[in-house]
Specification:
single chain, alpha/beta, Aspartate Aminotransferase, domain 1, 15 helices, about 15% strand, binds pyridoxal-5'-phosphate
């Protein structure tokens, strides 16, 4: 069959949708055909407030003119250039702009997604350890309930069982720290809970079991997002840092969600003042206009690769066809400009207390067993219906959608992460709508 013979059925069936209950969706589709600022619009013209920045990524709001113009201009000029052994100016410019945003990280490597950033970070960690003569350090430590995308590296260090159970052995040599979510001690705490820093000591037990000389790196999300917004206890991340430093283990923060203003700082490592050796980003890096990710490495890491490889040799055998794609770099540069001009990270910090009060005002709603928040991330956890995990939250999701609000659910938790351009009236609408919805959810 030639391409000209292909007829276009335009049905819903051909597409195998990602992370979706395909059969339910196709019976009752939810489609967005336009977006603007804080809103999506359905094909029949209904307005839906974006309470989740798409998938935690449209931090500057939708369809921002400077980003659209930058991408349009770029595609007219240079549609694509390879990144292996040749380059194009925008990728260098964007890399410099990014490293200029954060002290102590003088190099970035580009990817096209969060999953690729995670795999890249894990590979940098392994190769770095080998380059400094620590080739036995091949094990990784992740954390229960961690989400690090869907590559084999990411699901191996990740700790969400449905993402793992069908996929065989994955990477070997992985341990998981205990997660930090504990309703007995921390339910309804505003911001970071006081209880739980000692959970980082779990790493000492793993070190005692395997010996530090076998462990390359620990990877955690500073705030676990996709698993339901799990806020790190006060002092937890610092303790993790100390234990890693003591044992020569690299610390990787997965900042795919927390990067680019979500907590009111450029990155979570600045917000918490805890410096990982490597951190991953994606999503907000281009405001999701063009897919992209970047992995930041701490000063000295890149230098080791440059020193160890023989002159003329490729120093790191890794990269993607679309690493540093011109359109992504154009989108990224324009996105950083929007963040800067509108001071959106400071705006997130300023609105965080208002957002906190709004989400915690839902604590007395039916079936709510926890409310938690940090920066512009919030979660309302519902008690699960026995033997029907996720059903209650999905009902809330559907009802919120019908009332003009997009939320995200994971397990039986409703997660909220509005674009940083959100206004108080939008936050009020989010809280009122969720309150209304929870009255009728079974
Ligand atoms: N890491 C974290 C912390 C994430 O939240 C996500 C996505 O939500 C990913 C990695 C994977 O990103 P992507 O879906 O772009 O591959």
């Amino acid at each position: 069959m030639s391409i000209s013979d292909v007829t276009v059925p335009n049905d819903l069936d051909s597409l195998w949708m990602p992370f979706t209950d395909n059969r339910s969706f196709k019976k009752q589709p939810r489609l967005f055909s336009e977006a603007d600022g804080m809103y999506y619009f359905t094909p029949d013209g209904r307005k839906v407030l974006d309470g989740t920045s798409g998938l935690w990524c449209v931090n500057a709001g939708h369809r921002r003119k400077p980003i659209i113009e930058a991408v349009s201009k770029q595609v007219e000029k240079l549609d694509y250039a390879p990144g292996f052994q040749v380059g194009h100016p925008l990728s260098f410019e964007f890399a410099s702009r990014l490293t200029g945003m954060v002290k102590e990280y003088s190099h970035v490597m580009f990817t096209n997604s969060g999953s690729e950033s995670v795999d890249t970070a894990l590979k940098i960690a392994l190769a770095y350890q080998r380059n400094i003569g620590q080739g036995n350090r091949t094990r990784f430590v992740g954390r229960e309930r961690g989400y690090h995308g869907v590559g084999f590296g990411g699901i191996s260090v990740g700790g969400i069982s449905p993402n793992r159970k069908m996929f065989g052995n994955m990477l070997t040599g992985i341990d998981h720290l205990k997660h930090t979510h504990n309703l007995e001690h921390n339910a309804f705490v505003k911001g970071q809970p006081e209880w739980g820093a000692h959970l980082a000591d779990d790493l000492e037990s793993i070190v005692a079991l395997h010996d530090a000389s076998n462990i390359a790196a620990v990877i955690v999300e500073p705030v676990a997002g996709s698993t339901g917004v799990l806020i790190p206890p006060q002092g937890y991340l610092k303790r993790l840092r100390e234990i890693c430093t003591k044992h020569g283990i690299l610390l990787i923060f997965d900042e795919v969600i927390t990067g680019f203003g979500r907590l009111g700082d450029s990155f979570a490592n600045e917000y918490f003042d805890v410096k990982p050796d490597i951190f991953t980003t994606a999503k907000g890096i281009t405001n999701a206009t063009v897919p992209m990710g970047a992995v930041f490495v701490r000063d000295g890491i890149y230098d080791v690769f440059m020193e160890v490889a023989p002159e003329g040799a490729i120093e790191f055998f890794h990269g993607y066809t679309y690493s540093g794609h011109p359109l992504a770099c154009a989108a990224g540069l324009a996105t950083l400009e929007v963040y800067r001009e509108e001071d959106l990270f400071a705006r997130a910090a300023e609105l965080a207390p208002y957002f906190q009060e709004a989400v915690h005002s839902l604590a007395d709603c039916k079936n709510v067993i926890d409310v938690r928040n940090l920066g512009l991330m919030g979660a309302i956890e519902l008690e699960s219906i026995p033997n029907k995990l996720t059903v209650r939250a999905m009902e809330a999701f559907q009802k919120a959608f019908e009332r003009g609000l997009l939320v995200r659910t994971t397990g039986d938790t409703i997660a909220l992460s509005p674009p940083l351009i959100v206004e108080r009236k939008h936050i009020d609408f989010i809280a009122e709508t969720v309150r209304d919805v929870l009255k009728t959810v079974h």
